[in-house]
Design goal:
single chain, alpha/beta, Aspartate Aminotransferase, domain 2, 4-stranded antiparallel sheet, binds pyridoxal-5'-phosphate
């Protein structure tokens, strides 16, 4: 090792607090609004409506609970097939299963790493009766939402947009979290802004917003006692958490600017290397740059073999692989992460259908096409890609060192 390890760990993406959060927590405490009602909740819902440009937002305990409510609003029922992004965090798709639905995974395209509209079209050819599509905007980069929306409209399907990672990103100037009938954002600890936890359902449909409020507070009917006509959930956001979110909102644009600077410093630092950054379509979209990722050119990949839980690689001069880079970062006390392992590769979902632009993806394999364009895009991105330390508290000096460490992996 030619550098000393970092004294303070450089994180992938950790909470960045500013002080105002504490004032709103104290306000909740001193006014004794310590439960799931209060000024902070009302305020963060208003802030979200104004920032995103949606009519209604419902503050909930997590992005995952918001997704669960979205599945119920979309009418997902036992045995229903639901088209889902394949390369995403499992929280995008688990709520489909909570309602008894069956996720059908859709491969990505290389331009944004998000759901491929050609693969989605194929999926509708194979399963014309599907009524719900769930897309995630990976690592803060919007999907090609107008193509996806057009296909949904053509097939009369409801779109749910999981904007958990993309708060503040825009597509043709419009905020993500507004393209689906039901949309969600997350305030989980490592997202672009955080409440320590928390999430929201976003919609322009007043009736849906009212249902979400009712279901998330145990589905009480308007009666003198606890009267129930529907199944309820304890999914509402706490007023203390909402205080943290309220303080963070003022810093959302600043966080995005910091993340953007990190992304472009990496891009510049790697310009002569056989790697590229996670892509987006300039002039059409502006990501929130939540995580900076890189993908290694095919010719510069050393041999790497991944089993279900273990991995081996063979180091080679001039080449590297995500495993070598991630292990080297750990040695220097920095945190990276593999790309989300695609859902169709997860043991829990091994029986679920998976559709690529060429049709049924279950019989396909990238193993036979070395050097050519991959048949399965997500397996290829998972194989060659990784998430870089993207913490907004990382200093320029620390980032320069990370760039050098990664360059050394290729020596
Ligand atoms: C974080 C995340 C979620 C879940 O949000 P929580 O608030 O942690 O429940 C859902 N989808 C994606 C894509 C995420 O990254």
């Amino acid at each position: 090792m030619s550098f000393k390890p970092f004294q303070n760990k450089v994180w992938l993406s950790s909470p960045t607090m500013h002080g105002e959060e504490l004032e709103y927590i104290i306000e909740a405490y001193s006014t004794n609004w310590m439960s799931t009602v209060g000024a902070n909740i009302n305020e963060v819902e208003k802030l979200t409506n104004n920032y995103i440009g949606c009519k209604y937002s419902v503050a909930l305990s997590a992005g995952t609970s918001a997704l669960h409510i979205a599945m119920k609003l979309a009418g997902v029922k036992q045995g229903d097939y639901v088209f889902c992004s394949d390369m995403t965090f499992s929280a995008t798709v688990n709520p489909v299963v909570y309602e008894g639905g069956i996720p059908v995974f859709i491969d990505s395209e290389y331009e944004t790493w998000n759901m491929d509209s050609k693969a989605l079209e194929k999926a509708f050819e194979l399963y014309p009766d599907v009524k719900v599509v769930v897309i995630a905007n990976l690592y803060g980069t919007p999907a090609k939402v107008d193509e996806i929306m057009a296909i949904c409209q053509k097939h009369n399907a409801i779109l749910i947009e999981d904007a958990a990672e993309s708060l503040g990103a825009t597509y043709k100037g419009q905020q993500t979290g507004t393209f689906g009938t039901y949309n969600i954002i997350s305030f989980n600890g490592n997202k672009i802004i955080t409440g320590s936890s928390g999430g929201m359902l976003l919609t322009d449909d007043e009736e849906a917003a009212n249902k979400a409020r009712k279901w998330s507070t145990q589905s009480r009917e308007n009666a003198p006692w606890y009267q129930h006509e529907e199944i309820g959930y304890n999914y509402r956001m706490s007023n203390v958490i909402a205080g943290v979110v309220r303080g963070q909102y003022k810093h959302l644009d600043e966080h995005i600017a910091q993340k953007k600077a990190i992304y472009y410093r990496y891009k510049e630092g790697f310009k002569d290397m056989p790697v590229s950054m996670n892509p987006f379509i300039e002039d059409v979209m502006e990501p929130n740059y939540w995580l900076s990722c890189l993908i290694i050119d095919k010719e510069a990949m050393c041999k790497q073999v991944r089993g279900e839980k273990e991995v081996l690689y063979i180091s080679e001069p001039g080449k590297s692989c995500p495993t070598e880079i991630l292990e080297t970062l750990v040695k220097y006390n920095a945190e990276g992460r593999p790309i989300w392992k695609p859902m169709h590769m997860q043991p829990i979902f091994r029986m679920n259908p998976f559709i690529t632009k060429d049709g049924n993806g279950r019989g396909l394999s990238n193993a036979y096409i070395q050097g050519k364009e991959s048949v399965i895009v997500n397996e290829d991105i998972f194989e060659r890609g990784l998430c870089l330390p993207s913490d907004n508290k990382m200093t320029v000096e620390e980032q320069d060192m990370i760039i050098e460490i990664i360059k050394e992996c290729f020596e």
